[in-house]
Design goal:
By secondary structure, the chain is of the alpha/beta class. The chain has an 8-stranded parallel beta barrel with strand order 4-5-6-7-8-9-10-11, surrounded by 4 helices. Strands 16, 17, 18, 19, 20, 22, 23 and 24 form an 8-stranded antiparallel sheet that branches. Helix 5 runs parallel beside helix 6 and helix 9 packs parallel to helix 10. The radius of gyration is 25 Å and the shape is globular.
Length: 615
């Protein structure tokens, strides 16, 4: 009880200061953070971490301050963030910490708002993010195995961690900065129990200099023995209803250390073809209050989810009763305290009031709300066929090769061969990565979807030579589960027609990374896979969502920004189009869709559209 009182007092003193009066590492050294017996300390006094997760790369940089101010307004004293390796090192050895990848700037902004930072650089992060954060080029190396002792993987990981550390070393707490803790690996206990690998992982963090903050591991309560290290703080992750049991397990497993939940899952992610998550806010806030009243520290996952812009959504594939590939949506709304666009949900007040009751401190007011606007329906009158926008073929091979073979990371890839008919039968594609449509002479023959465990399409090829195309979409590499190490995309198995191999495949990489190169625009009707273009007129850039209900399956660019995927199976039917991505006046919108879209149009709406999936 005394520990809790002192902890609440320390928190009260911190939160009573206005944001402008909070110490920042740039001027005055940040208060020293450490562990002492069963509690954390701040400048030697017992301290309770009350944190929320914000993945800074999922939030437009212009809105970092807004989201951090809202964290303070809920009563948080800390924020936690991942770093997504594939964004900061898209090509091996080429690091980019500019723009939305500017980790140092995000930490500075958090400090300016009086918030400690918990940093989780991975290298593996899960996070319902493409490949769990691993860059695609790792999977191009034959035989390389991620999350293992493979020397090639460890060397690449070390280079990445060194690059991240170079951005934040002055900001680590023992160097006077606000980063109080750094996570080693991420929930490894749910994946394997290779302690030699975990020791090597921790050694990489030490070599990079991250030991100038508190190092810790985080795992589920039932797998603590798999993922923890004897010389490293262990915290536990769990969902609503499991707090008491999980903390009992952690206390028994690691007696005499601070008790903390590294991820309290106050929400859940969405997967294509499933219902939108709708979790029990009252139950979550009540349990969170119980956690704090025990004197435990906690991190809410997520405080704000944000958006997996572009092709950055991941996928689950784990061994259970419904063992299958399950890609996540572009929206990472997570049914969180703030919605995808950063607006407080009813959970916000419930959690804020719970924190206030425990600490006795009234947090600062919310910042001025961000404006949202509706935009009238705008027809996309120009179209360009995919067939008119194929690049030169990359290669001709006997069997199709995955996209990484061609240095391609994301998007689509087209495989083409010639078949002399008549031939009729099942075109076997193997385990498609991850969604394929088959065309005979540019006419749709059928589709095969990894999510539905489909591996073949029936074709009927007339007499004479005919072109067979297999267009494959990388729907998001697996971010969690035993299938994670095989991150190849495209076709990965030989293609058979009625049991006989088809050879002589041309390959056309379609990374979909530069809309300015598209040609062949026409106002005439275009059937089949095509791009559709129009211009939105915007007086003053204002947040909105683009309603995508006129389309089937594809993705959209706005002013060259890839806003993410749309798919009519739901649950997500709109794409977040924030003001920082807009222009005053004319705004170009290009939608790629696999289906014919005679009524192609978009409009701006003020909220995400959640549909009830039909399959």
């Amino acid at each position: 009880m005394l520990r809790h009182s002192l902890s609440a007092l320390a928190l009260s003193l911190l939160l009573s200061l206005p944001a402008s009066a909070q110490p920042t590492h740039a001027a005055t050294p940040w208060p020293a953070f450490a562990t002492q017996g069963e509690h954390f300390t701040r400048d030697g006094k017992p301290y309770q971490i009350i944190s929320g997760a914000i993945h800074f790369q999922r939030i437009p940089r212009a809105y970092w301050k807004d989201r951090l101010q809202k964290a303070r307004a809920m009563g948080l004293n800390t924020v936690e963030t991942y770093v997504f390796w594939n964004l900061v090192e898209p090509r091996q050895g080429q690091f980019d910490f500019s723009g939305n990848n500017d980790l140092a700037a995000f930490i500075d902004e958090a400090a300016a708002q009086g918030l400690n930072v918990i940093l989780r650089p991975g290298p593996y992060v899960c996070a319902e993010w493409e490949a769990g954060g691993y860059p695609a080029w790792l999977f191009a190396e034959p035989g390389l195995r991620v999350r293992s002792q493979d020397p090639r993987f460890l060397a690449a990981s070390q280079a990445y961690l060194d690059a991240v550390a170079a951005q934040v070393k002055p900001k680590l707490n023992h160097n006077g900065g606000p980063i109080i803790a750094v996570q080693v690996e991420n929930e490894y206990g749910s994946y394997d129990d290779d302690h030699v690998y975990m020791q090597a992982n921790r050694a990489m963090f030490v070599k990079a200099g991250f030991d100038k903050a508190l190092l810790f591991t985080a795992d589920g309560a039932d797998v603590l023995a798999n993922g923890t290290l004897p010389d490293t703080l262990a915290v536990v992750n769990f969902g609503p209803g499991d707090a008491e049991k999980a903390f009992q397990t952690l206390s028994k497993f690691r007696p005499g250390q601070p008790q903390m939940v590294g991820e309290y899952w106050a929400g859940w992610f969405d997967q294509w073809g499933d219902k939108h998550a709708n979790t029990d806010a009252t139950k979550q806030a009540s349990e969170f209050e119980w956690i704090l009243r025990q004197g435990h520290s906690a991190n809410i996952y997520m405080f704000v989810g944000g958006t997996s812009f572009g092709f950055m959504n991941g996928a689950n594939f784990q061994k259970n009763a419904s063992d299958h590939y399950a890609p996540q949506t572009t929206s990472y709304d997570y049914d969180a305290v703030l919605d995808e666009a950063g607006r407080p949900t009813p959970k916000f007040a419930l959690f804020r009031d719970a924190i206030t009751r425990v600490t006795g401190v009234q947090p600062p007011a919310l910042p001025k709300p961000i404006r949202f606007a509706e935009l009238p329906a705008t027809p996309l009158r120009e179209s360009a066929s995919l067939w008119d926008n194929l690049p030169a073929p990359a290669a001709t091979t006997d069997t199709p090769q995955p996209m990484e073979r061609y240095g391609q990371a994301y998007g689509y890839i087209l495989y083409r061969t010639t078949v002399t008919g008549p031939r009729k039968g099942s075109l076997y594609l193997g385990e498609v990565r991850d969604y394929a449509r088959v065309y005979v002479d540019r006419k749709l023959a059928g589709s095969a979807e990894r999510r539905l465990q489909q591996v073949a399409v029936d074709v009927d090829i007339p007499a004479g030579p005919h072109t067979v195309d297999v267009l494959v979409e990388n729907g998001g590499r697996i971010n969690y589960g035993t299938h994670l190490p095989d991150g190849r995309a495209g076709l990965v198995d030989p293609v058979l027609l009625d049991g006989k191999p088809l050879t002589g495949w041309q390959t056309f990489p379609l990374p979909m990374d530069d809309p300015s190169k598209l040609t062949g625009w026409t106002t005439a009707k275009v059937d089949g896979p095509a791009f559709h273009r129009g211009t939105l007129k915007i007086g003053t850039p204002t947040d909105t969502f683009l309603d995508m209900q006129a389309f089937g399956k594809g993705f959209a660019w706005a002013n060259g920004h890839n806003l993410g995927r749309h798919w009519n199976i739901g649950p997500q039917r709109a794409l977040y189009f924030p003001a920082p991505m807009q222009r005053k006046g004319e705004n170009s919108v290009i939608v790629f869709d696999l289906d014919s879209a005679p009524g192609a149009s978009v409009r701006g709406i003020k909220a995400q559209v959640w549909s009830v999936p039909s399959n």
